[in-house]
Amino acid sequence: MNKSELIDAIAADAGISKAAAKLALESFLGNVGATLKKGGRVSLVGFGSWSVSKRAAREGRNPQTGKTIKIAAKNVVKFKAGAELEGSVN
């Protein structure tokens, strides 16, 4: 399912227009992103939680040349599925 299919499904399930569903989805995504950017955590009970983790700098290899390269440290987003979501796919 892509973003437009998700908007269509939200609109149909909630009985709202596609424009309203698109605004709701974009608001959700924007607020999740803003919270994570501030170092916060977003939890939806039963669905899952998003958090930010720091990945340390490390050395890697260029697969074409075999040379060692330095990979910079960065923040990564992690998602942990909730019990209901895990149960729905098994």
From TrEMBL:
Gene3D superfamilies, per database record: IHF-like DNA-binding proteins
CDD domains linked to this entry: HU
Keyword Transmembrane: no
The keyword DNA-binding appears for this protein: yes
Alphabetical GO biological process terms: chromosome condensation
Keywords attached to this entry: DNA condensation, DNA-binding
GO CC annotation: cytosol
GO terms for MF: DNA binding; structural constituent of chromatin
Name of the protein in its database record: HU family DNA-binding protein
Species of provenance: Flavobacterium stagni
